[in-house]
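> tool_call: predict_assembly(chains=four)
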Amino acid sequence: MARAVSETHDEILIAASRRFAVTGYKGTSLQDIARAVGCSKATVLYHFANKEALLGKLMAPAITVLEALDARLAGQTGAAAQQVATEGFVDLAVRFRREIALLRGEFPDLLQQPAFAHIQQISERLVDAFAGHSDRPVARIAALVVLAGIAETCAEFIDIPDDELRPALLAVVRRAVEPVS
Amino acid sequence: MARAVSETHDEILIAASRRFAVTGYKGTSLQDIARAVGCSKATVLYHFANKEALLGKLMAPAITVLEALDARLAGQTGAAAQQVATEGFVDLAVRFRREIALLRGEFPDLLQQPAFAHIQQISERLVDAFAGHSDRPVARIAALVVLAGIAETCAEFIDIPDDELRPALLAVVRRAVEPVS
DNA sequence: AACTCATCTGACCGATCGGTCAGCGTCTGA
DNA sequence: TCAGACGCTGACCGATCGGTCAGATGAGTT
C-alpha cells in the first residue's frame, strides 16, 4: 500500500485546499480530508504535524507574495502608493483566489495566532496605501470597502478566467478609491 | 433564584448578540453564552429551543428590513434600482452592523439552511440592482465588490457613529458602481 | 396546607473534534 | 539475509460540542 513520499503528501495538500475552499478551515475536519484522499486521518497527521501546519503549507506562497507587496509599498506615498497597492493587491487576490476563499470569515480568528500576526499589520498598511495615507475616515472607509470587497469577490468568482476578473477589479478600484488631495 | 421571564430571556439575547459578534456563530458555544449571562447552559436551552432558534431571534429584525428593501426593489429598474439599492442597503448595513458582524464568514454555511435560503435570492437581486440590471461581468463584479465591501466594513467599524459611517459609504458606493448605460 | 406552574439546574448523552501511539507491511542498503 | 527506515493504520484519548431530562426551588392560588 505504501506509496512514494511525495505522492500522498501532495494529494493531501490538493484535497485539503479543495475542501478548505468549500467549507472553510474550521468547517473542514482532518477526517474529511482523509476521506477525500482515500487514506486514514492518522496518515494526514503523519505527513503534517497538525492541522495548522497543513494550513501554513497551503498559505505559504500567498503570504510570500503578500510580504513582497508590503516591501514594495514601504517606499511609496500618496498616489504612487495607491497605484502600487491597487495593482499589487488585485493581482495577488486574483492569483490566490482559492487561498482567500479558504480563509473566508476565519480571518479574525486566524490573525490572533502568532504565526499569522504580522498579516494584520500588513493589511493595515494596505488599507493605509489605498487611502493614500490619509487619516480622514472617509478615505479609510473607502479603502476598507475596496480591500474587503476585492477579497470576497475573488473568493466568489472562483471559475471566471483571470483576465476577465483582473481588469474588472482594477476598474472598480480606481473609481472607488478616494483620489489623493 | 427564579427571575421574571423576560429578564433572563432578554439577558441571554443580549449576551448572545455580543458573543456572536466577537467570535462568530459557530465559534460561540452555548456554554460561553451561559457563562456571560451567569446561568447554566440548560437555562439557555430552556428559553430557546436550540442554538439556531437563538440566532433566528437575533436576526429577525434585520431580515424583516432586508425583505422590505427587496420588496421596494421589485418595481425598479436601471438607475432608479441602483439608487434604491444603494441607500437601502447602506442604511441597513449601518443599522444592523452587529448582526452582520455575527454572520461574518458563516454566510455560505447558513445560507444552506432552509430557514435562510431566501436570503441568498435577495442578495442576488441586490447585486442585480447595484449592477443596474446589467449582465455584463464588469458591472456585476463591481456590484459584488461594493456589496461585500460594505458588509465587511460595517462589521469592522462597530464603534464609529452612524452619521459618520453612512455618508462615507454612500460616497464610495456612488463612485464605485458602474453607471447605467 | 396542598397544589400548580414557571424557572432553573446538574448530571448525563452521543457525536465529533484534533491528536497520540504501538505496531503493521514493505522496501532498501549493508 | 537481515536490520532499520518509511509509509501507513486502527484503536484510542481527552476535550468540547449541542441537546435531553428528572428533579429542585420558590412564588402564587385555592
